[in-house]
Amino acid sequence: MLDIPVTYSSTYKPTGSKHRARAAPDPPPLFDDTSGAYSSQPGEYPAPGADVAFNVNHLLGDPMANVAMAYGSSIASHGKDMVHKELHRFVSVNKLKYFFAVDTAYVAKKLGLLVFPYTHQNWEVQYSRDVPLPPRQDLNAPDLYIPTMAFITYVLLAGMALGIQKRFSPEVLGLCASTALVWVAMEVLALLLGVYLATVRSDLSTFHLLAYSGYKYVGDGYYVALAWTSSALMYFIVRSLRTAALGPDTVGGPAPRQRLQLYLTLGAAAFQPLIIYWLTFHLVR
């Protein structure tokens, strides 16, 4: 019998073969599929910002988170109130605005009054409904604008004088400015102590005394100018303090208190030229 060879095609696979090709299993996902949290329909993509909204809603729904947020807001509000309370305790913003309520006409007239106060007649501070008028409406009202500008001018002139003498340095200029501030602070503290010891009942505040002490920097001159501005400033201080602060208490008071108030006024006035000379003599050589 002849054997007839059987040829199989390359695509032929016996049906009874036990060896079948199996597809490789899919690798496990790195992250869990959370798309169901955004959309219930397959194939939809979450809207931009949906994950943020989900987290915020989840956070707001947590009672402990709400308590923590409320407690934090309460602490922040309490701290803000404490800061404002302490600030207003030492520095009243409304009172400070009063001393800077000036205009050009007031500044020009006040500078003329400081340089030549001898012809000025009325030294009383004007009031409206028991409230003192601001400086721009009353020439006798003290201000802090002129003392501030005069102090800055003094520092600049001191730097220029030191530069002309080839003695300028930032350290020397800083020492000059800090020394002037220390002297003003000491003068204000001495006046406050004198007013307390004299038991003077007046509306004088720290800002008032700071303004009157700062007017000394207007007279940035020397020799003849120093003598003129010092005498004018002494006259201005005596008339201002006696009329605005010490005058009402002096009338009808006991004689020892009257003398003490007079000595306090004269001492404050006599102290001005000494400070002016001390702050300027080393700049003129």
Radius of gyration: 42 Å
Which class of secondary structure composition applies to the elements? Answer: mainly alpha
Shape: globular
Write the H/E string, N to C. Answer: HHHHEEHHHHH
Assembly state: single chain
Share of residues in helices = 55-70%
**Total number of helical segments?**
9
Spatially, the strands of the biggest sheet line up as: 1-2
Strand content: under 5%
What's the arrangement of secondary structure elements?
Layout: H1 50-60, H2 63-90, H3 93-99, H4 104-115, E1 127-128, E2 131-132, H5 145-164, H6 170-197, H7 206-214, H8 224-250, H9 255-280
Antiparallel strand pairs: 1-2
Membrane topology: Multi-pass membrane protein
Main location: endoplasmic reticulum
GO biological process, one term: endoplasmic reticulum to Golgi vesicle-mediated transport
Short synopsis of the structure:
Its main location: endoplasmic reticulum. The protein is an all-alpha fold and 285 residues long.
Describe it.
- With 285 residues, the chain is mainly α.
- The protein contains 9 helices and 2 strands; from the N terminus they run H-H-H-H-E-E-H-H-H-H-H.
- The chain has helices at residues 50-60, 63-90, 93-99, 104-115, 145-164, 170-197, 206-214, 224-250, 255-280; strands spanning 127-128, 131-132.
- Strands 1-2 form a two-stranded antiparallel sheet.
- It is globular.
- Residues 8-14, 16-21, 37-46 and 247-251 have low confidence and may be disordered.
Descriptive keywords:
285 residues, mainly alpha, two-stranded antiparallel ribbon, transport, transmembrane, transmembrane helix, endoplasmic reticulum
